[in-house]
Amino acid sequence: MLSRISFKPLFAFLLLASGSLASAAHGEPVICGSVADEFTARAAGLERQWIRQIPSGVGSWRLERVTVGDGLVVAQTGDGGVHAIQAAREEGGLPPGTLLWSQQLGAGRGASGAAGIGPQVVTVAHDLAISAIDRRTGTVAWEKQLGQLPGAAAVPSGDWVYAAVPNEGVLRLPVNPRRSAASPTPAGATKQASGRGKQAVSPASLTESLDPKTINAGGETAFTPVSLADGIAWSTTDGTFIALERTKQGWRRHELPLGDPLAAQPVARGRTLYATTGPVGTAWPATLTRIELADPLAKDKPRPGLAIAWRVALPDHPEGSPIVVGDTLVVSLGPSGIAAFSATTGDLLWQTGLVGRLVAGGGDRVWCVDETGRLSGLDLASGIRRARLCLAGLSLPVVNTASDAVVLAAPGGVVLSFAPVAQPMPAER
User: Fold this and answer.
1) CB neighbourhood size of 224 (10 A)
2) What ranges do the domains of the chain cover?
3) Is 165 helix (H, G, I), strand (E, B) or coil?
4) Is the confidence at residue 24, as pLDDT, over 50?
5) Angle 388-392-394 (CA atoms, 0-180°, nearest 5)?
6) Beta partners for 157?
7) What is the pLDDT of residue 154?
8) Homologous superfamily of the 10-177+212-420 domain (CATH)
9) How far are the Cα atoms of 161, 231, 247, 429 from residue 158, in angstroms, in the given order?
């Protein structure tokens, strides 16, 4: 196993020093004037935060996927390697771009799902198993053998890890199987004094089994479950949303039928979900929906459970997940271009004929890879294209819905991260 690898090759140093980029494994040069050119990127509204070459394992390998989480970027290679990169500066911590650790999972021959990134562990489904890697040290904390691969990534949320298992349900595993079996009191829960002057114990703080548990999924699951309010939410193929919420009274299950199948992975923000329906190539209606999980502590005491805040029709079938930037929700409509909506009201803000796959949003821009294979930056307020940059070998798609960074990668193992720069730019002519 590879664990706690310190990787400071001369090649990575030269990349940082010169601003040039090349993949030793695949010979992918980045020419002057591309997004990898630090000066060109800044002029387009992006400031390079860091650049990292992922270390190679034994034999041939390629970078297969990159996942962006809160403060961490996880790159996975075809040989079963999992590599964690510090994505944001933390007080007293290592600088962004530092390779924190590398870990080898399985025999490197089985299918591997995308990484799930939590505050304590990084989870990966591979070789008919789920492995949890300690986020800080890079050591394997535990591994759970399964009879089959989960249907989607394993997702850490709160004290638990969730994975949808085909024909079985949603498997729940503890983040730390060796912790005390007493479930901690949920955030916001307070102990109430009893009539005898003693502190009453909330049912949610009573002993909760740490044994693996399979939860009824309510049907065949669609896409990866998402963390929602210290609980979990998923959707079924018939368009039903199901959420498990931890309350003062224990776990509560909520269900909300949308009636139409989801088109892409939903995006969560706090207690809010943004979802699209109408998969490409189907006759299902294409819609964009905001779903709220009611806060039981709210002063107006809303009805508990999931509820639709608004739902609007889309002019074409959506492709990929929505991108949320502040109060703006941006959706790719395939051949019909890209459209932006108010996240508060669902009102259409603008629509452009530019066709592209959304990858990130932050500052005053939303970014997509357009149909010509270039990185395009659209003005968040108007939809006007402000920048268009050559990717020059950074062809591995990385969709970031977790932060405002634009993360790009090459199959040869180079990963770069850019932050938005607040500066006025003339519209492209």
Assistant:
1) 21
2) 10-177+212-420
3) strand
4) no
5) 100
6) 160
7) 92
8) YVTN repeat-like/Quinoprotein amine dehydrogenase (2.130.10.10)
9) 8, 7, 13, 48
Beta strands across the sheet bearing 323-325: 323-325, 328-332, 338-342, 348-352
Q: How many Å apart are CA 426 and CA 382, to the nearest integer? A: 13
Separation CA 403–CA 408 (nearest Å) = 14
C-alpha 145/C-alpha 148 separation (Å) is 9
The type of residue at 359 is: V
Q: What is the DSSP letter of 40?
A: H
**408 in Cβ contact with 64 (< 8 Å):** no
Which DSSP string corresponds to 315-359?
SS---S--EEETTEEEEE-GGG-EEEEETTT--EEEEE---EEEE
Q: State the Cα–Cα distance between residues 272 and 264, nearest whole angstrom.
A: 16
Buried b (16+ CB within 10 A) or exposed e, 385-421: bbbebbbbbbebebbbbbbbbbbbbbbbbbbbbbbbb
The region of weakest confidence among 206-210, 286-290, 338-342, 384-388 is: 206-210
- How far is CA 366 from its chain centroid? 16
Amino acid at residue number 372:
T
DSSP, collapsed to helix, strand or coil, labels residue 16 as helix
Q: Which residue has the tokens 């929906």?
A: 289
The whole-chain average pLDDT of the chain stands at 83
Strand pairing category for 385-390 and 338-342: unpaired
| Tokens found for residue 18 | 């010169």
